[in-house]
Amino acid sequence: MLKHFIWDFDGTLFDTYPVLVDVFVELLEREGRLVDRVEVAELMAMSAKTTYEAFGVSDEFITTYKQQKTTIEFDRSHPFPGIQKLLETLSERGATHHIVTHRGQSIHALLTKHQLTHYFQDVLTAEQGFARKPDPEAVQYLIEQHQLQLSETIMIGDRELDVLAGHHAGIATCLISNQPSETVATYTVLSPDRLKELFLT
Question: By the 8 A CB rule, do 193 and 85 touch?
Answer without folding.
Answer: no
